[in-house]
Design goal:
Blueprint: H1 48-56, E1 57-58, E2 63-64, H2 69-98, E3 121-124, E4 131-134, H3 139-154, E5 165-167, E6 179-181, E7 206-211, H4 230-237, H5 242-247, E8 249-255, E9 261-262, E10 267-269, E11 286-290, E12 297-304, E13 311-312, E14 315-316, E15 319-326
Parallel strand pairs: 4-15, 5-6
Antiparallel strand pairs: 1-2, 3-7, 7-11, 8-10, 8-12, 9-11, 12-15, 13-14
């Protein structure tokens, strides 16, 4: 067959110069070729997009996002059972929690049990907090103030509330728990009206003061006239029976060193209280007309009652300070 010589490649354990013996001096069979070598390196990637597409769906292994159908079924079943248990546990806990609450969403602690012992004094329109400023010669600057007051007054309309048991209350004829006292702004004798845009087209705007709602809180009338400002004392003394008038109301009175104020009805009858979260409740309003100037006026308003405090934890309560200015 010729003199061709077959060359073999030996590993490091065989020494070809030692007669085919390995380093342990053992005879090795060199007549057979060495076993074929295998490439253990991963196949070269065809590109980033190819890897992404193969991760989304691998047609060779039938895997979607790295999982086959059986693996997906197991993990979906696990999370279905797991989150169903969490949802059921949450629903049971909420049901137990709601058993401790009033179905009409009343706070658990009210009246003397509540941390709120004194209601705040609100002012309408409170568009910019405690500041009221506008141009009396332009309707556009005061339009929002007028809209807010109109919206408030319309909420006192009882025509569309036939399901509410309204009643014209007096000091001798107080409401039952099912009845709601009607509050009629026309009976207050105020010059503030919708026809003159509540004074916001003039330099004498009107504001409406109201005590914030506190469930089951009942105010107490002041014990003595001496506890009230001098102007309010003069107002009460001018009534037919000052002592009775004093004992049947809580009072909201404003004072200003810069302006004259019109306060025709500063008293709030006690029969409007307590507020028990009844539907259609009319919160009594106290109208005040302010003679404002371009320099601005500061008005201080306070609620007066035996159980109304003006400062709680160093914060004002039952009191509000207003700054009213007519822009040129």
């Amino acid at each position: 067959m010729g003199n061709s010589t077959t060359k073999y490649t030996f590993n490091g354990d065989v020494d070809p110069n030692n007669g085919g013996k390995n380093r342990n001096n053992e005879k090795m069979d060199i007549s057979k070729p060495p076993p074929p070598s295998f490439n253990r390196m991963p196949p070269k990637s065809k590109g980033c997009m190819d890897d992404v597409v193969k991760f989304l769906w691998n047609p060779n292994t039938k895997e979607f996002l790295g999982r086959n159908a059986v693996s997906w079924a197991k993990i979906l079943l696990f999370y279905l059972v797991f989150y169903s248990f969490l949802a059921g546990f949450f629903a049971v806990m909420m049901a137990v929690f709601y058993q401790t609450l009033d179905t009409r969403h009343q706070p658990k602690y009210t009246g003397h049990q509540s941390l709120l012992n004194t209601p705040g004094l609100g002012v309408v329109p409170g568009l910019h907090g405690d500041v009221i400023t506008y141009q009396s010669s332009q309707d556009t600057s005061s339009r929002e103030y007028v809209r807010i007051i109109n919206q408030l007054i319309e909420s006192y309309d009882i025509v569309n509330r036939a399901q509410v048991d309204y009643k014209n209350c007096t000091s001798d004829d107080t409401p039952t728990k099912r009845e709601v006292c009607i509050f009629d702004l026309n009976l207050l004798g105020s010059s503030c009206s919708k026809e003159d845009n509540w004074g916001y087209t003039t330099s004498s705007p009107c504001i409406f003061l109201k005590l914030n709602k506190m469930i089951n809180w009942k105010p107490e009338a002041p014990r003595s006239l001496q506890d009230l400002p001098l102007g309010l004392q003069e107002y009460i003394n001018a009534t037919q029976d000052p002592l009775q008038t004093l004992s049947e109301h809580v009072w909201v009175w404003c004072e200003s060193e810069d302006s004259q104020l019109e306060q025709p009805a500063p008293g709030i009858p006690l029969y409007y209280f307590p507020y028990t979260n009844q539907e259609g409740y009319h919160r009594p309003l106290v109208p005040v007309r302010i003679n404002a100037t371009q320099d601005g006026v500061v008005v201080n308003c306070r609620a007066y009652g035996h159980n109304i405090q003006h400062k709680v934890n160093k914060r004002l309560a039952g009191e509000v300070n207003l700054y009213v200015k007519i822009e040129a």
